[in-house]
Amino acid sequence: MVHVSATPVLALRGVSKRFGAVQALTDVELEVHAGEVVALVGDNGAGKSTLVKTIAGVHPIDEGVIEWDGRAVQINRPHDAQDLGIATVYQDLALCDNIDVVGNLFLGRELRKRGVLDEVEMERRARDLLTTLSIRIPSVRIPIASLSGGQRQTVAIARSMLGEPKLVILDEPTAALGVEQTAQVLDLVERLRERDHAVILISHNMADVKAVADKVAVLRLGRNNGVFEVKSTSQEEIISAITGATDNAVTRRAARTTGEVSK
Amino acid sequence: MSIDKTSPTPGQDEHVVENPEAAAAAVTVVDPRLLVREQGLTGYVGEFKRKMRAGDLGSIPVVIGLIVIGVVFQSLNSAFLSAENLNNITITMVGTGMISVGIVFVLLLGEIDLSVGSVSGASSAIAAVLAVNQGWPEWAAVLFAVAAGAAIGAAHGFFFAVLGAPAFAVTLAGLLFWLGFMLQTLGANGTINLDSDGLIGSLTTYYFTDIAAAYGLAAVVTAVFFITSFLGNRRREAAGIPSRPLNETILRTALLAVICFAAAFMYNQYKGLPLATVIFLVFLVATDFVLRRTSYGRKVFALGGSVEASRRAGINVTAVRISVFAVSGGFAAMGGLFLASKIASANQSAGTGDLLMNAIAAAVIGGTSLFGGRGRTWNALLGVMVIVSIQYGLQLESIAEPVKYMITAGVLLTTVVIDSITRRTQKTAGRA
Description:
- Chain B: GO terms for molecular function: transmembrane transporter activity.
- By secondary structure, chain A is of the alpha/beta class.
- Chain A has helices spanning about 50-55, 80-85, 100-105, 120-130, 150-160, 180-195, 205-210, 235-245, 250-260, and strands at about 10-20, 20-30, 35-40, 65-70, 70-75, 85-90, 110-115, 115, 165-170, 200, 215-220, 225-230.
- The model of chain A has no long low-confidence stretch (mean pLDDT about 85).
- In chain B, about 75% of the residues lie in helices and about 0% in strands.
- A two-stranded antiparallel ribbon of chain B has the order 1-4. A two-stranded antiparallel ribbon of chain B has the order 2-3.
- At the A-B interface, β8 and α4 of A face α11, α14 and α15 of B.
């Protein structure tokens, strides 16, 4: 079993968020501990992205409390979240295609020596970081354009690790990846956990969730719809929590196809 | 068969990757698929071939172009490669070249600045009015004119970056406005003659006549290049990251030395080292340093790659954009002063005609991408060399202006086609 500390790194208590007439989040609760991967699942429009953006400081919350290491904090700007030690890797990777891997890892926080870019130190640290995370890419001096989708995703995640964040939020990191690349990213998520980072993983892919997550928090129509221990929960239970009923499109389809097979 | 080129079969792989285990041991994070360059000359040839196939042409087309230009015009008229003619070419190209350096900055953002011709004319008019009509000391007039150029550029940048108007349209308006401003400033006479022995006049007429000056500069440039490369490589070795082998550094230094000393020899055959060339080189070195070795330069490249990524990385997109247009305006002003110096006056035709097109063409011919994020300020030097060489060559053949336009257009079109094709090749090779 994964070691889980008593005080959660991040805790949301009764968080609500409105956009005009739309109640995007209602009384949402969420806890993430160090060394724990929490999968955040839900159908399209369930509020996953909104919830992540409130944590990342893109949309400040309207009601409720965000606790960081047990004390209440205000996250009003992306900068506030970064200062606390929250790193977010968005779905579109936000890398510059024309700049090499080292340049992208340090983009916006270049190391300087007497006012000049310290390329040697940046390259050394980039190599160290990639080695620690067991990320394999052809060279740290090739432009991002030369990398595969999976490699880019790992670079984007590695970049979020440079600031030694306590919490890493991954927004659908495997959405556009092949089998091999997905495995690489999932390996990387496990290494983040081993290094005692807290991870929030947004995913539509139940297989990914079952593979790496410790807990699954389900959102439905902007509200909590259960938090499950992955080990003791079946995929069907999670799906019925996502869709809101045991009788749903997924189970009906499953029943239909097995029925057809038995015919 | 083209598939074989881009993705070698496992059998071929063994030939390309020389001793993958040793390579992996030498550098920590190495993918076995990585093509590791072999040591020595064969390694060079191999890497060169691979780069050509991947469409990574760099400056090679333009260097070949320069050689072709030299051979063709020399065979037509033996005066083309004379010291005097080459000297005139290198002085004339400074004005357009300076403007082109600013254009490189703007192109790196993936934007365009159409106002640089007019801004260069307006700045030379400002300098002339202040120095001649108002009796300012020339150095003050020069500083003011360059500052005015930068301020004009920053104003364009403001409309683009803050108000969100397309740079194309803003600078097109600037082209008209500053042309009108220049004509207004020059007044009824339309021409203000400059003191040809004054500061502005001597920009293109002063020579360091001592032959030691040109050779000395060549020696200093070569030595500085070697020392910085050598120390840089030693630091990389000490940090345990891949570095260039010593013989490669020596080879590069030797190549640079040949070019520098050949140029110095050529200058000394005529009047000596021109001041204009020294100033141009200083700005090229400085801008190249800023773009490649400072975090400001990194931000410019980042914006050319992805604006959204830059914003998320905490880069102040608005400030960088405004500053780049200010740089463009400042270099346009400096170019304008060199052009005014060449004719010893500020007149109504300054900054008009094909100046704008030549400045943009020079940057593109030199290898700066029109699509942003790729290029160096040295591209401006190579490109402007091509354009001015063609102009001088055609002049020696007494070929009329209309034909010159058509030939320059042909060169530009060829370059853009090469740029587009290499870009496509680079895409398929995963390099763009």
